[in-house]
Specification:
The chain is an all-alpha fold and 92 residues long. It has 2 domains: 48 residues; 34 residues. Helices cover 76% and strands 0% of the residues. It is built from 5 helices and no strands. Helix 1 crosses helix 3 and helix 2 packs across helix 3. The longest helix is centred in the last third of the chain and has 28 residues.
Length: 92
């Protein structure tokens, strides 16, 4: 993964140049030899909105797990008419 190329300290320091020192993302990215896309992503992860980003990631992960569990239960119940009917009711 390209994201693993830079350690967390580097990412945080890059974000601080933007959030605390007021430099533009484009300037910091150019000076550090990184893409603006990476720096925007790091800013979301480590910057002022880090808590909102982490909550969103947590919610996304929880939703993924719940969908996988629903799929598993649906497949388990598909061969059992009563359970399948009950599951359909709860899915609506």
């Amino acid at each position: 993964m390209a994201d693993e190329r830079y350690n967390e300290e580097f990412k945080i320091a890059a974000v601080k140049q933007v959030t605390e020192n007021g430099h533009s993302i484009a300037d910091v990215a150019k000076r550090l030899g990184i893409t603006t896309k990476s720096l925007y992503s790091w800013r979301d992860r480590y910057g002022e909105n880090a808590q909102a980003y982490q909550e969103k990631q947590s919610s996304t992960e929880e939703l993924r797990k719940l969908k996988a569990e629903l799929k598993r239960v649906t497949e388990e119940c598909s061969g059992q008419p009563f359970l399948a009917t009950t599951l359909e009711v709860f899915q609506k």
